Amino acid sequence: MQSFLRPLQTVITTFFFALSPASAQTDPASFAWQEKAAGHARILSQVKWSPVADTLPNRKGGYFEKGKEYTGVPYSSVRSEGRYIGFDIALRTFLAAVENPHSVLYTENFTGKVANAAAYYGSVCSAYTSYALGCGIPEVSRRYGPPVGTGIILVEPQSAEAAQVGDVIYTPHATETSGSHVEMVTAVNRDKECRLVSIRVEESRPPTTATTERSVANFNAHLAARNKQLLRVTDREAWRGANRSEPLRFPNFDLDATPAKINRALLLDLGDWVPYQKGALVKFHVMDRDQLGVKALVIQRGKDVVEEIALTCPGLHERRFEVCGDYSAHVIHADGSKSQACEFAVCDLDLRLPGESVSLGKEWKVEFGSENMNVIAVYLWNSGDSYGRHPIFLTEAQRKSGALTIPADLLKKPGTLQVWLIGEHALGRLKARKDIPLVK
Predict the structure, then answer these.
(1) Which of 31, 141, 405, 432 satisfies CB 3.0 to 4.6 Å to 126 for a cystine?
(2) 266-347 and 353-439, same CATH topology
(3) What single string gives the DSSP state of each residue in 30-82?
């Protein structure tokens, strides 16, 4: 695992509550989760990767440079079309896709198609901080700011001296429809005399995550700009509510922090260790990067061989799978040896909505089904209400019945309602989406 600890020289990273004017607002016994949150943030912010093609879209404009090393995961608001790194896929899946010049990272481009998106895999400010804070799915950034969120307070005084690890900096939206921004304090650095030296702030912004060491003066100036607010989660359970990572398979911090061995003989268009929707096209790229020669591509479902494709050279092979299950694929080299296997799953999600519209003030039902994955949540996104985003995590009874009743008083404004069905497999998540008018 890559170490994220700074050398202890003249600067010591400290968490002395007694030194902070806001120390009475936080119980020192509960501080362990704040330290972990900072460590989780750095899993995504410090990962290093290099594109192997020049067609990976950059949210800042243009494309990431082939062969250049980047630090931190790329910024892209993939929403329901792509996949969020850490939530929908593990970090290793992104790193595998980076190594395949024919992966969706290089062949798909959401620029101009999905608002605030570029690459097929990515993160945004709120997804990044939600990952660090242990949410099950990303919270929108304005959920951090009081009075929308509970269990979170405005730090007093609003200054560097009051900042603590795990605090977030929230930039409010300028208008009802404009975006907001959130950053995280991941280190408070003091010298041997315990004088505040600097504060490390990390965030997801184009083109990748950003890590900034701010002096006291610079931090205070940063905080004073654009009506920013220094906030502290004092009750993480109240703030997260049902949106907790612990009962779910993702985020998987231990897996994300463990270096992955990327397959050099074969990769999939979605990378490796990844689920596909039933009937979707799966593209196998036989690469043979170590030039061992190739004789066959073997595709298995469990222990059963589905197909063995004779090979004479590297290249692309496409297949669709109509049978759900856990699959693998490997290459047989010229000497008869087997390559590392790629792992993927074929799963199915079925989402059903009532009629042609639903009405405000009336309850209605979402029906669903799944195969080879568990349905974990229904997510509602109202285009007519910037606060109208509601994750509803399913009970075991709802999951077994295949139905969820949406309460009559949950949605407040008319608009086009996106309904996402989120399913989870050990290799990642899939989302099925349908839109329906929400009318008075």
Answers:
(1) 141
(2) yes
(3) GTHHHHHHHHHHHHHHS-EE--SSS--B-TTSSBPPTT--EESPBB---TTTS
